[in-house]
Design goal:
By secondary structure, this protein is of the alpha+beta class. It has a domain at 92-218: Protein Transport Mog1p, Chain A (3-Layer(aba) Sandwich). It has helices at 2-31, 124-133, 203-206, 210-218; strands at residues 58-60, 65-66, 78-81, 87-88, 96-102, 109-114, 135-137, 146-149, 155-165, 178-189, 195-202, 221-222. Strands 4, 5, 6, 7, 8, 9, 10 and 11 form an eight-stranded antiparallel sheet that branches. A hairpin with a 7-residue loop joins β4 and β5 (96-102).
């Protein structure tokens, strides 16, 4: 009888100890200070305030303004010289490294530089074709890509399309077609790239900025370390 009684009591004691331990651990967890919820890092850095009519000189690949004659901000990427009369704007999304309004006789045009991370954004051919497809080329025109050399180690493929800018349902283009428009687009290839340069707007404005756009592409260079 004694052996049987001991065998019966022992499991009951073990269950009691386990229950006490569970209760204590539950109380400890309840009394512990709350852990702060992890904060998601904002993928879009705070954009600089829009500068209105102030001209810009050099922009870094992150959209930072480089003071004229001053040193470039220290960050990985590229620098390039933006035409002095283009007006800097705060980038509208985290995918835009730089943005500016292009003044001209036909009304303002838009300029932006896009970056999707090293190797991101698709092939040169796909982007050139996408830009062509965003336009209804003027009759008798046959847009063809051309190349030029930027700074050391950079290759630029660019396209120019005049005609009607098609409406877009993606929120990145006009809601209605825009006849009398012109698009200048370029893919800049180099270490850490590619980068995508794009200017669109009234033909009377963008056509007059063609050389300025090309000179900007020629100025692309690696950011000074």
């Amino acid at each position: 009888m004694t052996s049987r009684l001991r065998l019966t009591i022992l499991p009951l004691l073990l269950l009691g100890l386990a229950a006490c331990g569970h209760k204590e651990s539950g109380q400890s967890a309840a009394n512990a200070p709350p852990t702060a919820a992890p904060t998601a890092k904002d993928p879009m850095p705070a954009a600089a305030a829009q500068t209105g009519e102030a001209p810009i000189g050099t922009l870094s690949s992150r959209g930072e303004t480089v003071p004229s004659g001053g040193a470039a901000p220290q960050s990985a990427g590229i620098d390039f010289d933006v035409p002095a009369n283009w007006q800097a704007q705060a980038p509208e999304s985290s995918m835009r490294l730089a943005q500016a309004a292009i003044p001209g006789p036909g009304g303002p045009g838009q300029f932006a530089v896009f970056f999707f991370g090293p190797g991101g954004g698709g092939s040169v051919e796909a982007n050139i074709q996408r830009w062509i497809d965003q336009m209804e080329p003027a009759k008798g025109t046959h847009p063809k890509p051309e190349t030029l050399e930027g700074g050391k180690g950079f290759k630029v493929t660019w396209i120019e399309v005049a005609g009607t800018l098609k409406p877009s349902s993606m929120g990145t283009g006009p809601a209605a077609e825009q006849p009398g428009s012109r698009l200048l687009g370029a893919v800049v290839q180099g270490p850490g790239g590619p980068w995508f340069f794009k200017a669109t707007g009234p033909d009377a404005t963008i056509a007059g900025q063609r050389e300025a756009f090309l000179n900007m592409l020629k100025s692309v260079r690696a950011k000074a370390s």
